[in-house]
């Protein structure tokens, strides 16, 4: 099927630079997507955007170029609850990719088991209104109860202003819970302000809650963008990500968010984006936890060997 991209769509950055920051051995890109290719894996009729293609082979080439060892491929809303493009990527990864699926209430236990065998380890609940239609909370809670039995976790995507309304629902989730993109803070507000304080309080009060310290390119308002050799990009996001990494070093993940859906302003050079990491995880120990120990514990627990003295 032929698809026409959403007007103004920005394609992923071709020919990214080599990061200057050397990723630790075994680093995991814990948030990225595949799109199509649309001809092979058609986009969902209920989608809110139509992206460019971003295939598994292109994702794996980026992984190797940047120096990551593994990927966590997150089902993007443009594929709805048809997880086949994501599952196909896992199947061709030589065990180097795990996945986060989108499922609906009608999913059978057999389908969940097949997703598990393919390498899926969680589901994503998306509350960003421009991306999805509303799903009733009782349906989501029912799904959470079912996937808990597989040892999976729930990834939640929401915007900071919606946390008060979602607080009770999130608190009741029976699994580990991973917040996407720090709950999308408004970085024009103070890092010590009430909105971000609520996110920190939520993590403090819920030891099962993790956060991805991802997407500075989405959250930044003053840049500078990760382009043209800029290795100090998105400085307005640094205090927020750094605060989470330092307070919750064992519950943070990092990912590229390649191919960066729905960016309006610019498309980052992913090599320069990797150079953002040492600004938010400033010691080798914090970097190892963020990039290796934490994602391995969550996604490849059967292979994870805790570093001496580290909490497992
Ligand atoms: O890439 C992301 O994580 C964020 C997205 C897209 C998305 O979540 C999706 O399509 O599933 C966004 O803010 O547009």
From TrEMBL:
Query: What Pfam families is this protein classified in?
Result: Amidohydro_2 (PF04909)
- Kindly provide the name given to this protein in its UniProt entry: Amidohydrolase family protein
Q: Which residues form the Amidohydrolase-related domain?
A: 28-299
Return the Gene3D superfamilies for the record. Answer: Metal-dependent hydrolases
Q: Which PANTHER family match?
A: BARREL METAL-DEPENDENT HYDROLASE, PUTATIVE (AFU_ORTHOLOGUE AFUA_1G16240)-RELATED
